[in-house]
């Protein structure tokens, strides 16, 4: 388990990162489903929403290393990655901008290859700003069918570090 402290409004909060456990799934679904709806809205793809209960299977979430972030002793974010790719990163929409996403990303970056990549939906400026602040740069932009929901066309930025 990794512990990090963040300071907000003179209060110190602890972010603990630990491996995913099956008992975390319901909380991950709550986090993902709200955050994913926001993410898709930024890309004008709201109709493409699929809940985590389906997306986890269709997009093979558990083929990746999955870790959760506990903020004030509650799971408030998660990340999934392989050596080559950051595949999932979601934070509870009620606890954004508190260092949870950055802590998860920092944790993962210590475990991946130096030229790791991530796909970010066009229009998802909060994610682009986060990844840019951690040394990622947009290297190309691609359009095609949305993984997991192939009825929709999507444009993504490939960002590499």
Provide a quick synopsis of the model.
With 161 residues, the chain is α+β, with helices and mostly antiparallel strands. It is built from 4 helices and 8 strands, in the order E-E-H-H-E-E-E-H-E-H-E-E. It is globular, with a radius of gyration of 15 Å.
Number of strands: 8
The parts where pLDDT drops under 50 for at least 5 residues are none
Helical amount among residues, as a percent range? 25-40%
Question: Using only CA atoms, what is the Rg?
Answer: 15 Å
- Average pLDDT over all residues: 93
Indicate the proportion of strand residues. 35-45%
Key features of this structure:
161 residues, alpha+beta, five-stranded antiparallel beta sheet, three-stranded antiparallel beta sheet, 4 helices, globular
